[in-house]
Design goal:
The protein is α+β, with helices and mostly antiparallel strands. It contains eight helices and four strands, in the order ααααααβαβββα.
């Protein structure tokens, strides 16, 4: 929990700088790029997290690897995370920054669960309908789950709508089990 709070605080600080610089999306993409490298290259992550390696050596590697690919403020932000020993939180910071950006841009991520793959035009129609219902631009993440049998289920944050055939059958089963079937 503490790590999530720290990551959120760092993300908010970078977000504020990006907002002042009018480069919210660019800073977010740069932070995502760094987090992506950390996720894809565990040896690089280990290099940054190892306390035996000098911080200046780590900064030099970051400078060589990212100076031409990220804005200067983002590179300074990376150096700050090293100075404070927070580099292991960079992926969490990237997610927190993305959440702040989505909130600012009026976007909502929605997990769309279906029993069979959807065509692009079907998914686009679902996305448009979700956008209208949520009052935000819906970013649909399709998840195929054959066990749903049919229908569709959505999850956005704490909001869940389950219109699957499986859920309806479970509801009917509960009603039948609760029904008093004694004969007069």
């Amino acid at each position: 929990m503490r790590g999530a709070i720290i990551a959120r605080n760092y993300a908010e600080a970078l977000f504020e700088l990006a907002d002042r610089d009018d480069r919210l999306e660019e800073y977010g993409a740069a932070l995502d790029q760094v987090a992506g490298v950390l996720d894809a290259a565990p040896e690089f992550r280990l290099f940054l997290e190892t306390p035996r390696i000098d911080i200046e050596a780590k900064k030099e590697v970051l400078r060589k690897g990212f100076a031409e690919h990220v804005p200067p403020f983002v590179l300074s932000f990376l150096f700050l995370t090293l100075d404070r020993g927070r580099q292991r939180l960079l992926p969490r910071m990237a997610r927190a920054y993305g959440d702040l950006l989505d909130e600012r841009m009026g976007r909502a991520h929605v997990e769309v669960q279906v029993a069979r793959p959807m065509e692009d035009d079907e998914l686009e129609a679902v996305r448009r309908r979700l956008s209208a219902v949520l009052g935000k631009e819906a970013i649909a993440h399709l998840k195929v789950q054959p066990e749903l049998l049919g229908g569709i289920a959505f999850r956005s944050g704490d909001t869940i709508f389950d219109g699957s055939v499986r859920r309806r059958l479970q509801g009917m089963r509960r009603q039948l089990m609760a029904a008093d079937i004694s004969t007069p």
